[in-house]
Amino acid sequence: MAEERLDKILSGQNIATRTESKKLALKGMLAVNGKITKRSDIKVDPEKDEILVKGVKLIYKKHLYIMMNKPSGVLSASKDKNTETVIDLLPKELRREGMFPAGRLDKDTTGFVLLTDDGELAHKMLSPKKHVYKLYLAGCDKILNNDDVMTFAKGITSGEDVFMPAEMKIISDNFALVEICEGKFHQIKRMFHAIGADITSLKRLRIGSVFLDDSLGEGEFRELTSDEIIGITDSSFKGINSDTLPPAFLSI
After folding, report:
1. Which of 1, 48, 71, 152 has the greatest number of C-beta atoms within 10 Å?
2. pTM
3. Which residues are catalytic?
C-alpha cells in the first residue's frame, strides 16, 4: 500500500490520536524499523515497516470484520443518543472510526450482525445483484403449512411489496427457517404478514457461507477468520439443511 503519515496510521488503528502520537514521539516511544523517531508525521508503509508503540509491535489491520451475536433491544447503528447500539457493545480498542453494522437487524431481531469499516465488502454482501443469501430462524403466531412454503417459493407480491422467491423450511408448527438474498426494510416480517402471520421472534443464523458462531452468547463477538471474510460474500452458498445446523440454533 502507499505510505501514510505515522500519526494517521495510529489514529486509524485506534491506537492514539494525532496529538497523542506527537507526544509519544517526543518521549521516544515510537520506533520504525528499529529506530526511534521523534516525529509522528513521517511517512511509513504499515504493511512493510515494523512499527513499535511503547515497545509493542503494531499489528496492522486495514479493516476489521467482527461477528456479533446481537441481543434484542440493541440498535443496529453506529451511534444513537438515546439507545444502546451494537458499536457500544465493543471495547474501546475496536471502535474504529467508520465502524458500522453491515446488514442491519431490527431492534428486536437477534443473531449474526457483521461490524466492519470495509464499505466495499459490505456492498458486495448486501447488494441484491450479488445474491448473497442470509438464513433466519423465524417464529410466528400462525401454524405454518405447505401452502405457506409454496407461497414463499413463488415470490410474494403484496400491494407495492415485491419479494423474490425465498426458501422456507418448517421445523415446528410456529417456527421455520427462511433464506433470502434481499435485504428490504422489515422484509421477513412483511413476507410473513402477507401469509397472515405476525413474527414473534427472528434470529439471523448465517450470512453467505458463514454461520453464527454458536459459542457466542448474546452480545458477544469475535473477529472473522480470513476464510470467513471470503465466505461472507459467497453467493454460491444456498439452501437450507437443518440437519447440519448446531442444535443451539434450533432451540425453540
Report:
1. 152
2. 0.87
3. 106
